[in-house]
Amino acid sequence: MLDLVNDKDEIIGTIARSQSHRLTTEKLGFTRASDMFIRNTEGKLWIPKRTAHKTIAPNGLDYSCGGHVTPGDDYDSTMIKEIEEELNFTPDPGKLHYITKMPPTTTPYFHAIYVYDSDETPNYNPNDFVSSQWMTPKELLATLDNGALAKTSIKETVLKLLELGKI
To answer: For residue 45, what pLDDT is reported?
Structure first.
């Protein structure tokens, strides 16, 4: 289950994850997600490639980590849980920085954006990712512009983080 929220990000109910396709077709509302990029001291982002069995963006480039907020959780707790599950480490709170919350545009959900400072390549969960690489924001944007498969919201997120001077 996922929290169903209105255009002000206020909870108005729940929806089964399997029914989330109805959000746009029936204009039921929105859901929530937390997404994060790992940034190293060279200013590069750790970008993984999703597994082929993923429903959303199979074999596509992804945020370093992310996931939907489930009922009873909030953006912060979701981010920590997803880091532990997808990247197999417990995050250092001093290295995890909330940046902004992006409204639904290319996706039917609000998503809180975080940046995690680390030079270590995560020992990612092979059920989530098949490979990874460190890329500058410019390299990532060029790769996306050249047609690489990816989650639809990554480009707008990178552009927003660049605008805010956060990457």
So the answer is: 98
Distance CA 109, CA 29 (A): 9
pTM: 0.94
Tokens 């597994």 -> residue: 51
Domains of the chain: 32-98+106-163 (3.90.79.10)
Q: Which residues pair with 68 in a beta bridge?
A: 33
pLDDT, one tens digit per residue, over 101-110 is 999 988 899 9
| CA 113 – CA 75 distance, rounded (Å) | 9
